[in-house]
Amino acid sequence: MSYQRVKFYQTGTFTVGNRLLGEDDRTVQGRNDRTNSLNSGHRACQGCGEALGARYALDAVMRATHNQLVAVNATGCLEVFSSPYPESAWQIPWLHSLFGNAPAVASGVAAAIRAKGKTAIRVVAQGGDGATVDIGFGCLSGMFERNDDVLYICYDNEAYMNTGVQRSGSTPARAWTNTTQAVGPEPGNPMGVGKNLPRIAMAHGIPYVATASVADLHDLETKVTKAMSVRGARYIHIHVPCPLGWKSDPAQTIKVARLAVESGLFPLFEAEWGVVTDRTPIRKQVPVEQYLALQGRFKHLFNPRDEQALEVMQAMADRNIHLYDLLATEPALES
Amino acid sequence: MKQQIEGSQAVAHAVALCRPEVMACYPISPQTHIVETLSRKVKAGEIGNCQFLNVESEFGALSVLIGASAMGARTYTATTSQGLLFMAEALYNAAGLGLPIVMTIANRAVGAPINIWNDHSDSMAMRDAGWLQLFAEDNQEAVDLHIQAFRLAEELSCPVMVCMDGYILTHAFEAVDLPVQEQVDAFLPPFEPVQVLDPQDPVSIGAMVGPEAFAEVRYLAHHKHVQALEAIPRISQEFQEIFQRTSGGLLKQYHTDEAETLLLALGSVNGTIKDAVDDLRAEGWPVGAIQLCSFRPFPSQVLRHAVHNAKRIIVIEKDLAVGRGGIVSSEVKLALQGLPTLVDTVIAGLGGRAISKAAVIDTVKAACLEGLEEPHFLDLNWEAINQELTRQAEQRRSGPTPENLLREMGLSGGKIV
């Protein structure tokens, strides 16, 4: 591959720049030998958080496995924008079966690898939040409890975007979607519903669970790399803004993702064998309002201002900050 | 060597000799004895490095096999009834992807009302999923068809269902000539996939296909079944050369020469039918029988040839296309288009109701002497049906139909009240 100059634009973020890091700590994506597992030329929207997350995650897996990777994909945006014949963007062995079975298909790949004694080959399953928290949940739970040697990555953009923005079990409180419209006395998605899949994954007692965000791609790569150093069922839940479904500016995907983290609404943490072992502290907590105001899906909270809803959502963020000890300056939690 | 053995145990024995590499199973009666036996064999290390996964659903079971097969492993599972229907989406997917998975269907009725006994509603509901469907007449044939199924599936890169009647075969003890490893190894070469997930040679499998190529992909799936019409008898012949017995093929004929009336059926009821044919022939009735072994692909040309100059063919089928009548008979009619042969539909054996030799004989005589209404339901309790219809006409809130029927028949909880 020809030499590619790496540029860093994201000043003011956690991305401090590879030049300041030692060789071993530099990002996978910043290396000349990155594999471009999800190659350019695919059909994702401008500013797609999922495409970004998938590219970083899979290239990190490729580096961790010395390019011995098989990927299984659930139906969804990632599958659709990457694969129409004859333009597959995948540079890795890639299998798409159905919407609700990616974890089981990956279990099958892992079983075949064991049967054939080719255990240097590793398998990653990936899907959106619909495939993960809703339709594929049974298969995912089965893969977890059997502790099959699969890393499952959920790209969470908080609704069914591929079908045109409908509510999922991961859609946040009060968010507009096409099936939770911004009308009536409580516009948007109801309060007090939805699943916290990282916690559910932890409850299976699997070796590794982590959350990550496209706001902190170095952290994402580190977690993926760490996940691949472990055998057994692993789960990484990546927060990926969707400009289409969130009605946000495609140029602000990273900023929106960062505000989700810095407000406390999307805590970044790691857990091993069901116990939280580390979290990424927030340098300065921002009010949830800053995060919400950038997204048209929450527009109804501001016109007129819905103080009660904003208070509840701030309380949700505060609760996360308390639960995961996000404002503490110590590098790690006391267990 | 012949051995007195339960059908499920015999099938498990045969599957194990085929050296499967990944099996994923979910319990549902009446297929459980097969996978229980295989799980023991795997755990005891009797099937090499085979992996046995206890999964969370039938949908999960077939999905595991889709992944394993795409990774180049020989794969197997068994299911029935509700389990098969719960797999439906994955069935179409496995066939669409061209993955040579072999699955036993221990044929069972589909609810509601829930019913665990035998008929063919389950596999018939999935007849157009793209899987080959082979039906066994007895446990010897069930054993033999599994060995042939792996060969067929892998040659064509197409999944195969081996259908055997739930309980009637799966739980029946009878003498079976169990194959030995050397025979199976001589017949079934190691699996060489046509497509495989390989980091050294990466391919995308299961990508989206638009209108520009979808019809061609579907045609090629159909073409595999057309090829199977040639492959099934050839593989059956090769099987005979190694195992010294005839099993499988597209269909079998019993006294069809000079027969004016033919009976046609799938599965274990053919034993009863052959006995009925013997008795009828002894009384001078020119009767014969056709046992359909391959339902998918449907052997239209071979069937036309077998029917020859028969005046009438009576299809006895353990399924019901609600609102239409017979599934098998509809296919038979289509196959015999242009021939003068009359085709009768007899819906029989639903939900495990016994099909007696006497009922078959009476039906043949009635068809030949008076003709049959279309479709004809064998052995219906019209008194109970008419009582329920009257009840429904008289009151809006007539209640749950199955429970009403049981009460009218004087049955409650399986006991006479």
Describe the structure.
The complex is a heterodimer of chains A (335) and B (417). With 335 residues, chain A is an alpha/beta fold. Chain A has eleven helices and eight strands. Chain A has one domain: Rossmann fold (3-Layer(aba) Sandwich), CATH 3.40.50. In chain A, a hairpin with a 2-residue loop joins strand 7 and strand 8. Chain A is globular. The termini of chain A are far apart. Helices cover 42% and strands 18% of the residues of chain B. In chain B, the strands form four sheets. Chain B has a seven-stranded mixed sheet with strand order 3-2-4-5-7-6-13, with helices on both faces. Chain B is globular, with a radius of gyration of 22 Å. The model of chain B has no long low-confidence stretch (mean pLDDT 96). In chain B, strand 2 (22-25), helix 2 and strand 3 form a beta-alpha-beta unit. Chain B folds into three domains: 2-243, Rossmann fold; 251-377, Rossmann fold (3-Layer(aba) Sandwich), CATH 3.40.50; 382-416, no CATH class. With 417 residues, chain B is of the alpha/beta class. The interface between A and B is large, with 45 and 44 residues. Strand 2 of chain A pairs parallel with strand 9 (204-205) of chain B, so a sheet runs across the interface.
* Second CATH tier, the architecture of the largest domain in chain B: 3-Layer(aba) Sandwich
Largest sheet of chain A: 8 strands, mixed
Would you identify the regions of chain B where 5 or more consecutive residues have pLDDT less than 50? none
Q: Order the strands across the largest sheet of chain B as they lie in space.
A: 3-2-4-5-7-6-13
Compute the separation of the termini of chain A in Å.
Answer: 46 Å
SSE arrangement of chain A, N to C: HEHEHEHHEHEHEHHEEHH
Instruction: Report the principal-axis shape of chain A.
Output: globular
Total DSSP E strands of chain A: 8
Radius of gyration of chain A, whole Å: 19 Å
Strand proportion of chain B, as a percent range, falls in 15-25%
Q: Please count the helical segments of chain B.
A: 15
Which secondary-structure class do the elements of chain B indicate?
alpha/beta
Can you tell me the CATH topology of chain A?
Rossmann fold
List the domain count of chain A as a whole number: 1
Oligomer: heterodimer
CATH class of chain A: Alpha Beta
* Weakly predicted, low-confidence segments of chain A: 1-8, 10-14
Structural domain count of chain B = 3
